[in-house]
Amino acid sequence: MARRARTHHATGAERAGPAAGRRWPWRCTVSALVSAKGLRKAYKNKVALDDAAFEIPAGRIVGLIGPNGAGKTTALKAMLGLIPFDGQLNVLGLDPRTQRDELMRDVCFIADVAVLPRWMKVKEAIEFVSGVHPRFDKARCERFLKGTQLKPNMRVREMSKGMIVQLHLALVMAIDARLLVLDEPTLGLDILYRKQFYQRLLEDYFDEQKTILVTTHQVEEIEHILTDVMFIRDGKVVLDTPMDTLGERFIEVFVDAQRAEEARGLQPIDERALPFGKTVMLYDGVPAERLAAIGETRTPGLADLFVATMKGTYA
Ligand SMILES: Nc1ncnc2c1ncn2[C@@H]1O[C@H](COP(=O)(O)OP(=O)(O)OP(=O)(O)O)[C@@H](O)[C@H]1O
Fold first, then answer.
1. What is the largest CA-CA distance in the chain?
2. Is the pLDDT of residue 26 over 80?
């Protein structure tokens, strides 16, 4: 979906209303915070989510990663009850279609950092979020800001990008949500600020009571903070794995030219050339001992795994 200008900060953060609707009729796995099965969404004649299935356990940082138009934003919107959809979807034990108000008490949704209006003062941003989110702790936000150069009367347009990141983070981190949903939160920031954003989120916000779901194209810089990764392609979740078991399934091997044919016989899912005649081959589900016999092995980076998984997407 083409990114459009967003006009306010916390799109999903609405004042909680009375509990509405019925409980979802089927039980999700005890530890799953979000559980989807046969999730489908079609816009006119475009299928955005096509029988997608996934589970997000509590206390995790999950990256939802996919190429443009894969269905990431649509999946988030469904979880937040912002669009109608078909199939089963349970978020925090609630049905987003009928229990959105109740859901929003425990969910915080923040779009990218650039959404803070330029005319807004620090104190106005605080008042705004305070007014729309029931779990926003104003004092906590002000404590976070104390350690920065930001002053209550400073306007967004007077801030450097780094300061905007600090304000954004202070607002996010003062919301005591069980589920924090971030849709490409660092769009438009350079690599230093992007790293700073994720690092602070990890160090000052995340704990085992919280779950963070983040979509991004910037695979490399969130890789180290993720506990789980989901790849989405053409509306389907094509990979859903904890980061710490990724290396049990996927292995990269550095192969010399003379062993290349032998290595290809083990059917790599991708290969790329290196200088001096070496090739890196990426395998899915081939035993580590067999691969160790043909070259030096290592766990692939998420970016290389993403490229291999998405081959053909841009054809
Ligand atoms: N309101 C809409 N009306 C029609 N088609 C839509 C609408 N929103 C999304 N789509 C289409 O649904 C598909 C999935 O879009 P979605 O925004 O979920 O993808 P995405 O993975 O978030 O992409 P991006 O990374 O580009 O933001 C795309 O083909 C998009 O064009």
1. 69
2. no
Gap from CA of 65 to ligand 1 centroid (Å): 14
Of the candidates 169, 76, 74, the one whose C-alpha atom is nearest the C-alpha of residue 116 is 169
Q: Are both 172 and 44 inside the same structural domain? A: yes
Listed residue (128, 122, 124) closest to 145, CA to CA: 122
Indicate the range of 62-66, 193-197, 272-276 predicted with least confidence. 193-197
For residue 235, which atom of ligand 1 is closest to its CA?
A: 14
Same domain as 102, residue 77: yes
Q: What number is the average pLDDT over the span 98-118?
A: 81
Residue 254: both structure tokens together = 């550095």
Q: Which atom belonging to ligand 1 lies closest to the Cα atom of 66?
A: 21
Containing structural domain, residue 251: 245-309
Mutate to test the pocket of ligand 1, among 74, 214, 238 (most ligand atoms within 8 A of CB): 74
Nearest CA residue ID for atom 28, ligand 1: 69
Q: Specify the amino acid at residue 95.
A: D
Residue 84 Cβ < 6 Å to ligand 1: no
Q: Determine the average pLDDT of the residues in 285-292.
A: 95
- The pair of structure tokens assigned to 38 is 């046969």
Identify whether 154 is part of a domain: yes
Query: Do 285 and 224 belong to one domain?
Result: no
Distance of CA 156 from the midpoint of ligand 1 (Å):
29
Going from the Cα of 48 to the center of ligand 1, the distance in angstroms, rounded, reads 6
**Assessment of whether the complete model's pTM goes beyond 0.90:** no
Q: Does any ligand 1 atom lie closer than 6 A to the CB of residue 70?
A: yes
* Helix or strand (DSSP H, E) at 291: helix 288-292
Beta-carbon-side half-sphere exposure of residue 1 (alpha carbons within 13 Å): 18
Last residue of a domain, one of 234, 257, 289: 234
